[in-house]
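Fold this sequence, please.
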Amino acid sequence: MTTLTTSQAATLAGVTIDTIRHWCRMGAVRATKTAGRWVIDQVSLLRRIELGTRTRKERTVELTVANLVAVGGREWKRGDKHRIYFNNIADYLPLEIERYKSGNISWAAWEGEEISNRQAYLILQSVDRVYYDVATGEFRGCYGLRESRIASKQEIWKRLVDGIKQAVAAL
């Protein structure tokens, strides 16, 4: 039996890691939790992907306030400014993190490959103040002061925006 991590399964299925975790919890794929991590049966996942391609109709990603809030954004309005902020960027990146009760990172992986906790912190600090500007229809944010050797700030920004769009498409 071939098994996959959540990152590998998400890449194979073309969905977010959160979707894979949801499938595991709901029993849509055969998976077990070992040491706090999902271990997914590849055959079961391939069967689920096949089912999804048969029934899924192609649709465009519509970035509306309701959709962006539904995937974890927080709406903010002041004067003529209307934004949707995304504070937990790890949810939209191919980054898996486990934390101690204190909140510190205890384990991390980028695209299924285990990385050091320090590199995970640097990835999370690569971009800051991420939001969708409703008036212009653009994602905005700032690059952080630090950069990981795992991925550049520009790559992390692109992956973050793509991850948010994927999460909206999965609704």
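Residues 83 and 133 are 5 Å apart (CA to CA). The chain has two domains: 3-55, 65-169.
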